[in-house]
Design a protein that fits this description.
mainly beta, seven-stranded antiparallel sheet
């Protein structure tokens, strides 16, 4: 799960379905210390099969089923400044 921020942050954590994981510097960017604007993390194993579900039909007729996941983020901008926010994302639920 990548997040792109408007300002540089030190770290971020995400919580999905009660599972918390850390978001870190994106591996494709040159290594460097300090704050980053793009952070990424992975929840393994992903437990997104509990719903609610949303079905998406593509132009070629293939339908996919996704779960609607509530994500809670805590973003640390450094110097004691932390921001909490929540959003909804589509997780992968499998093809129909």
């Amino acid at each position: 799960m990548p997040i792109v921020l408007r300002t540089h942050a030190v770290t971020a954590t995400a919580t999905i379905n009660g599972q918390t994981f850390e978001l870190r510097r994106l591996w494709s960017f040159p290594p460097g210390p300090g704050k980053q604007m793009t952070l990424v993390g992975f929840l393994q194993p992903a437990r997104f099969m509990h719903g609610p579900f949303k079905t998406v039909t593509y132009r070629n007729g293939i339908r996919d089923r996704f779960t609607v996941e509530n994500v809670h983020l805590v973003i640390d901008y450094g110097a004691g400044r932390k921001v909490q926010t929540s959003l909804q994302l589509l997780g992968y639920g499998g093809s129909i």
